[in-house]
Amino acid sequence: MKHRTIAVAALALFPFAAAATDTELKLLREEVQRMKADYERRIDALEKRLAAAESAPAVAIAPAAAPQAAAAAPRAAGFNPEISLTLQGQAKSMQDIPGRTISGYWPAGDEHGGEKRGLSVDHTELSFAANIDSLFRGTARFAVVDNEIDVEEAHFATLGLGSGLALKGGRFRSEIGYINVQHPHEWDFADAPLMSKALFGAEGYRQDGLQLKWVAPTELFLQFGAEMGRGDRFPGTDRNGTGPGAGAAFAKLGGDVGASHAWQAGISYLATRAADRPAHAMDTAGPNEVTAQFSGRSRAWIADFVWKWAPDGDARDRNFKLQGEVFRRSEDGTLACSSDIGGSPCAGSLALGGYQSRQGGGYVQGVWQFVPRWRVGARYDWLGPGTRQYDDATVFAALDPGASLFSTYRPKRSSLMLDWSPSEFSRLRLQYARDTAMADVTDNQVTLQYIMSLGAHGAHKF
Amino acid sequence: MRTSSKSLLAFFLALLAGPAPAALNIFATVPEWAALAQEIGGDRVKVFAATHGLQDPHRVEAKPSLIARARSADLVVATGAELEVGWLPLVLRESGNARIQPGRPGHFEAAQRVSMLEVPARLDRADGDVHAEGNPHIQTDPRNILKVAEALAARMTELDAANAAAYRDGLRAFAQRWQANLARWEKAAAPL
Predict the structure, then answer these.
(1) Between chains, do A459 and B59 touch, taking CB under 8 Å as contact?
(2) CB count, 10 Å around CB of A263?
(3) Chain A within 8 Å of B69 (Cβ-Cβ)?
(4) For chain A, which terminal residue's Cβ has fewer other Cβ atoms within 10 angstroms, N or C?
(5) Cβ-nearest to A459 among B51, B62, B121
(6) Contact A125/A185 with Cβ under 8 angstroms?
(7) Are the beta carbons of B63 and A262 separated by less than 8 Å?
(8) pLDDT, tens digit, for every residue of A425-454?
(9) How much is the ipTM here?
(10) Taking a C-beta distance cutoff of 8 angstroms, is the pair A101, A443 a contact?
(11) Per-residue pLDDT tens over the stretch A157-169
């Protein structure tokens, strides 16, 4: 606009400048040429922009339609829970030992999908989670293998009760210790630590009951929790009572050190009771296979610690995790044995007097991601025979002292693993373990394992 | 003389007003929103940034320190669009803090204030790290920051009406400087 007025003014002035010199005329002509070129260039640019703008809507409409289509689809299925499926399987090379036990420890019972030799499929974990309403969130996990569906978890939890409280009810993995709350697909090794197998069995300790946790309003993370449940899982038994059969309490402390380190420490306590908790034993006559039974109180203390390091807190390229737990379990009660075989000293049922045991052990493991997607780990498990008090004369009149139950062996195991995770949803692992958990057996185990998750998978705890 | 007597009066009034209200406790998931909240709130807010610029947002974990901070927070400022899906929902659930749960005023998602780009037509993990709601790195467009700032100031006013004037002033001052910078950046980026 400005240039136009100047041009008009210049033209208007032309008659008055009739007396201008030739150089002035030449300058004016050049000026006009420049303006003309400038105008043409700008008109060109405007035309190009117009052309682009006219064609752009065609492009914009397509992505606008796509989000609408994408939005329409979830709307129909909008309330569906987050569903995820975890597929696991392995090829395992280990010695064929029927009746494998951890010497000196009360066996924790059969484990489904336990440790098979050769190629096998571990249980497939199917999990559902969703908000139920503004107060509650529900989660269910099923472990499916070979005609058996095990309800691992089925609970509701509050969504922000306020004041740092959280309530959970139903079946859930107990948060005592550190590794107990983790599902097998979250483990850093192909199997549970010896300590977990001895304390609770490879499935871990589950509560059918209530859990209340409270986070203190401190800068350092401080959390207290209490649980009560049916108590029907090892080391307890199903006693068909009306009150809670197991109680647990835990306290956790955690924080950061600088930007690169994060740690958490905890101490937990579990108390439960057992009535006629069975274990295989051999009697002195025969020898026949009989059932030894423990009835009484079982209490366990667990202390756990985990420390994670990542350069500047960025765990993508390299990171390191060190974790360890120790436990001490005290059991006080009575021993008995029972058998169906007439000639056995345990025929029917035979009381064998008082039984007390104090046992402890632990594990420590370190996992180091040395390049993106590749990790290497080492773990050392140890269990002590502890001290057991019972009347030798009475017990060994009926039961064979060579049984695993009475062993004073020191179970140990060392494991090394290497895993590759192309994404956070898939993992391949190679593990070697030197397993001396059973007396007189040194088992070199090699496992090649895959863990694959599909679907909406929630985050794992620290 | 008049200004000094005015300030003296203000000082006495401030004394009579009693203790200053507790600062609004803000838990920001990324340093961009922490800085923004600090600009708007000034000294009326206490801001905590859960992550810093050197961390890959896909590998952040729900650390105990984050849970402890979230427990006392009044406002969570998150990007949303699944950027923090790997850790924030767990931190919120573990914190036991009713105020900051999704859907409450204490939960602010920046991605809801801006138009999202690259919303995928299909959701398939074979495509890699796909974000269902679009590209969540909205803070890389400086024009989005202003939209988020306005919404954030409104939310902070909603939570802490006593300091509404301070937040408005903070927003205005920030918006002025940001607009000036926007003009400068657009000019510098013109050849691109």
Answers:
(1) no
(2) 20
(3) yes
(4) N
(5) B62
(6) yes
(7) yes
(8) 999 999 999 999 999 999 999 999 999 999
(9) 0.82
(10) no
(11) 999 888 999 999 9
